[in-house]
Amino acid sequence: MPSPSRWFELRVWLGLIGGLAAMPLALAADEPQQLARGKALFTQTQPACAVCHTLAAAGSEGQVGPVLDELKPDAERVRKVLRAGLGAMPSFADKLSAADIEALAVFVARSTGGAVQPPKAAP
User: Fold this and answer.
1) Where is each Cytochrome c domain found (predicted)?
2) CATH code, domain with 44
3) Which of 30, 33, 39, 109 is deepest in the core (most CB within 10 A)?
């Protein structure tokens, strides 16, 4: 029979595993609102993403930036570019909240078939 400290260790591990397993369900529950927010931000943020980028889900046909439907960026790539900018694209770190950046990242990734993974923890 395992010692009391071993039982405690097992309970901690099981709790961690259970928490991680539930995380995608929590993300999925909020996703419809997040996608709607992301779409609104894509078309309404100034300057609007839709001015430069083509994205069928947003009804945009921009001619300057990459065609997102072809690029299929994952959510992490979208987060990074929104925060830091890339090439001619400016950073939106001072214009968008962390929640807005997340909504845009999830919307673009979901719309194009890119991977939607949770944001990485800050170092």
Assistant:
1) 33-112
2) 1.10.760.10
3) 109
